[in-house]
Design brief:
The complex is a heterodimer.
Chain A lengths: L1 H24 L3 H25 L6 H31 L13
Helix pairs in contact in A: 1-2, 2-3
Chain B lengths: L2 H22 L3 H21 L3 H25 L15 H20 L13 H12 L4 H22 L4 H4 L1
Helix pairs in contact in B: 1-2, 2-3
The chains are: A mainly alpha, B mainly alpha.
Chain lengths: ~100, ~170
């Protein structure tokens, strides 16, 4: 059973590393959002693994998962709104060209 | 080695592999689909870990979210099909180092501590859903309502940010 917890947490670690690489290395805003989504997915895997293998009688663990899912939705909505605003004004969502916050 | 362990490793490996594919393919539509498969594999991991409600929720939510992402990809990318083999990365060496160090640090945190006794059984799906409902509408009501309010605020903020300002507003 402890090995299953380790597998789940290692998957979370892997997703975190890949997401961090993606968020830092990509120049396109939508690809950066994908990297952040992977980092948040790593948090989800860890939360469910902790709930399942350490505290299955505590529903607060599942509640945390719902909160992280809400954060994912919010991050995507605001990220895409910024992408739309940027694309309309500058015609591109390449972050290399974004030097100031003013649209 | 139990059946649960085999399935957990299989879906975990799939989630990580598709996560790698997201940043390796030149086609942005394939990137969005790879992220969808990665998130679906994570949902399947939840099902293996007997969190049925969360597993189904994850798969349904991510299927919708990634479809929207694929549409945005086609809208905003200069080369969504990846035919031109454009390089859309920067500071690659720094990112690889940061990702590698982050991965190693996370793995050390996973493998070094003693996690204590592991629970052998979980409540049934029906009981889990009932407990979660009581938790959300009881002890965690304030946090749950705050999450709802945050989503509402984000919806308003997203709409406002996406509206094109006219010349007078731009001054």
């Amino acid at each position: 059973m402890i090995l299953e917890l380790m597998i789940a947490l290692s998957v979370g670690a892997g997703l975190f590393g890949i997401g961090l690489y993606g968020a830092l290395s990509q120049t396109n805003l939508v690809m950066i959002i994908m990297g952040v989504e992977l980092i948040l997915a790593a948090a989800l895997v860890n939360l469910v693994a902790f709930w399942r293998y350490l505290h299955p009688d505590e529903p607060a663990g599942q509640m945390f998962v719902l909160i992280v899912m809400a954060v994912m939705a919010v991050e995507m909505a605001v990220g895409f709104a910024i992408a739309i605003a940027r694309f309309r004004v500058r015609g591109s969502v390449e972050m290399e060209e974004a030097r100031e916050l003013k649209g | 080695m139990t059946v649960q362990m085999i399935f957990l490793a299989f879906f975990g490996g799939a989630a990580v592999w598709f996560g790698v594919v997201v940043f390796r393919t030149h086609s942005m539509v394939r990137s969005a689909l790879a992220l969808l498969f990665s998130q679906t594999a994570i949902g399947a991991m939840f099902l293996v870990m007997q969190a049925e409600f969360l597993g189904v929720l994850q798969i349904m939510m991510m299927a919708t979210e990634m479809s929207v992402m694929a549409i945005f990809m086609v809208m905003f990318m200069m080369d969504p099909g990846g035919m031109g083999k454009m390089d859309m990365t920067h500071q690659k060496r720094l990112s690889l180092w940061a990702g590698g160090i982050g991965l190693l640090a996370a793995l050390l945190l996973v493998w070094l501590p003693d996690w204590g006794p592991v629970a052998l059984s979980v409540p049934g799906a029906h009981e889990q859903a009932a407990d979660l409902g009581r938790e959300l509408l009881g002890r965690s009501m304030l946090i749950f309502q705050s999450a709802g309010l945050t989503i509402l605020t984000a919806m308003v903020a997203a709409t406002m940010a996406a509206i094109v300002p006219n010349a007078e507003q731009r001054k």
